[in-house]
Amino acid sequence: MIELFFRDFNNIWKFSAMSPLNFTSVSFWLLFGVSLLAYSLVYRNRAVRNAFLFLVSLFFYYKTSGVFFILLIFSTIVDFSIGHLLFRTRAIWKRQLWVTLSVFVNLSVLFYFKYPYFISDFLSQALDINWAPKPVHAIWSNAYLGTDFVESKILLPVGISFYTFQCLSYIIDIYRRQIEPVKSVLDFGFYVSFFPQLVAGPIVRASEFIPQLHKPYKLSKAVFGLGVFWIINGLLKKIVLADYIASNFADRVFAQPTLYSGLECLLALFAYSLQVYADFSGYTDVAIGVALLMGFTLTKNFNSPYKAINTSDFWRRWHISLSSWLRDYLYIPLGGNREGSFASYLIVFTSFFVIAIMAESWKVPIFMAAFLLLVFALTQWISLFKKWLNTNINLMLTMLLGGLWHGSSWNFVIWGGLNGLGLVFYKFWKKIRPWNPKSSLLGRVFGISTTLFFITLSRAWFRSETWGDAISILTRIWTAFDPSITFDILTGFWRPLSLMLAGYLIHWIPEFQKANYRKKFMNAPVLIQWSCTLFVIVVLYQAMSFDSQPFIYFQF
Question: Would you say the C-alpha torsion 191, 192, 194, 196 has a positive or negative sign?
């Protein structure tokens, strides 16, 4: 018995690719409890506190991604150094060189780990160049350091997209003279690696988080209650709602859509829409709660997105930290809604060129060349068209690149492009619509329904591995829709469908009512808070007997 205890205890401190540390594992909460106990001994000294939390964050990242924590340290040192050099530099051209260096280093690391196979497929299809990406870092380390890293493929470090964007925003904000660099590398490392949000967001701005490093730690009863509330709320979303719907309905249909009817395929898409929301917002809820217990406030990342009355409203509510990052560091620098910049048109031309050379038919490049010439002619002849193009080109590019941020697949690009088209269409529809959805209940219901329907259909590309898989499930909806079997479907899948319905209804509860029950939990006696927490733990324990699903956004 004692030997088993020490074996399990020793395994807690080691990385296991088969069981990485995350919010749904018991090991995480054991280690978090130990960390809080140690934290209670050092929190009064802010420098020691921040250094301690940096080391704890590195350890948690090691438990999630193994030796890739070295990559996190590399990014931390590089951007901390460039930030100070950039701040001390006065010449504009030198400042531009420093910020360019940071962008180059950060994006190079991101591209090396995230997009090599995407580029390889493009070269193979478009130029008939056979290039097989190799994990050079693993091969070199195995040869010279005696390690045993995987050499068959380049593995993607968990959370690299998130902390790369945090580093970039820090450097760009210093370049814009909006913030000053952090004085201590340990403080900066803590900002980059803060473990609750490191691997799946929210993306935290330096201007929002770094000032908190210098504030004394305070944890009132109300804040403690709010932190606990967000933790149990997020775990219920993830384990009870998202995982159950995925395992018992959505994953089955997406695995073999041709075996299911059109209604089942449609319901599976709505199930996935709810799953991805409950999964991702559940993670950020837990991250916000854990951060509150340690005295830090993280950015709000979701605001009931399926209450959105249009696509523009949806993207103000969904993954808010990414949407605002793309707006401030990509959309506005490209020209915003004022005009297309040189970079905008260069990206468009490059994209058309890539598609043209990848096409199997010679007719495609001819058509695209003719299309570009027509667009150019219209911009010269019709000023309104030129204005419309300049207004919307940056919006489309931002959404396309936002799609590519999610993954190295054309499906993600298509998904981003569809959402860009949805935003462009809404801007046109807003000018001609016969009613204002905010002024009538019927208009609001119509807006919410059509927005949810569009977002859900576009998720066919987000969820599917290939273009063909997405088309297959969408085609099945229209070609195999049989109303006569509706009752059989509802009774056959009544459990996951009932949970789906409950999930959407809870989501649509008015925000003031949600704020009221959060406030009641915050201010409830400790005995009631702990009783509710114990009850939730029992429910989670029972629910975890089902197949556990990894957090969806870990792959990004």
Answer: positive
